[in-house]
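Title: Prediction job returns without error message
Component: structure pipeline
Severity: low
Priority: P3
Assignee: unassigned

Description:
Job completed but the reporter wants confirmation the result is attached to the right record. Sequence as submitted:
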Amino acid sequence: MSFGIFGIQFGWGLQMANTSAIFEHLGAEAKQIPILWLAAPLTGLFVQPIIGNLSDNTWGVLGRRRPYFLVGAILSSLALLAMPNASNLWVAVGLLWILDTSANISMEPFRAFVGDLLPPEQRTKGFAMQSLLVGLSSILAASLPWLLTHVLGVSAIAPKHAVPPAIKLSFYIGAAVFLGTVLWTVFTTEEYPPPDMDVFKAQQERRLGFSATFREISTALKQMPPIMRQLAWVQGFSWLGMYCLFLYFPPAIAHNILGAVDEASPLYAEGIEWAGLCIAMYSAVCFAFSLVLPKIAAATSRKTTHALCLACGAAGLISLSFVPNQYWVLLSMVGVGIAWASILAMPYAMLVGVLPPKKSGIYLGIFNFFIVLPQILASLGLGWLMVHVLQGDRLTAVILGGVFMLIAALLTQRVQEASKLQPDSLLTSDAAGSNQSAAEVAKARAIVEIR
């Protein structure tokens, strides 16, 4: 059921490791990078809650979530084929919008998929499995250009305003992996139809459509469970930290660590490749740590585990200010990998048990607001900060991400885990949103009390 997320993350891993380099190859300056990345958070802001609501209220030949996996995978694969062949900077930016929109169509239902198919006691393991596959695919995606260059001899150097062949071939392979793995999940995983199809169809007519979708989103925003509001701040600062890494880490390695002067320099190509290996390193740690993450959470608590992991990530990013050479960056990536494993699993494991089952998709889409809104602010403001405060220093921008992650670790202590919440607070939105009968509400309350 989670294998498709391997391919989605493979595509995103290529995007994270290479997009800033593609932009710089096509003529972008350091101060322009944040605004050029605006597509990533902005598409998530609009696409994920809309797709969440649609997938909550869909049933057809392919089930509930799987139609969205498939459509997103096809469109994403086409964008991956086209992006490294962009003729100029603005074409590449446009293709990033298409790629991110399409990837979000596939990704959002995968979170709800775990809540749909797994019982509560298995959900932490389910999200940890997703983290494990994300880590594994990121290792392969980030290291692929280096492997193509050093094993197969594909060139990593290109003329000015052109993308190197190694990056192009990596994106072609990524398109095949994205589509192939999602097809595996679509055709090998069974979804279960709603128990009362007549009721479902009546609700479907009421909840679908443009105005109905935004009405559902508005209602869900007003009725968010308390733990979701608390996790919002944690998510915001966690992803601000990771966003600084996504934006500037590869160019920072090339310019600040290896001393590349411009994008045509062999040192620049070497730096981008080394950054890919460093991303593969933190992805490998994510992969390995995901295996023990559920055990640590069971021995302590999800909240404590997440706070400790975020603190490790903060230490890893801040330590980049002290590394004497590129080899020490690998050690810094250990902390980032621990944090990344937890970011991909723990907030969702804490949240999914308190969401109304019939609206889990739309709530998880709304939860994405608290990931993308801070990133939109960073996209709009970080360029100014680079010019007027950071003096164009890409490495300092990455270190700033460590500060944001440390703030997120501290804010995690404010989160009230589900077992401490009042049962009625977990039922409000579902009861109001789906006109549950008194018997259904009583049954749901009993389930919450047992949990």
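Comment from assignee: result matches the submitted record. Residues 420-451 have pLDDT under 50 and may be disordered.
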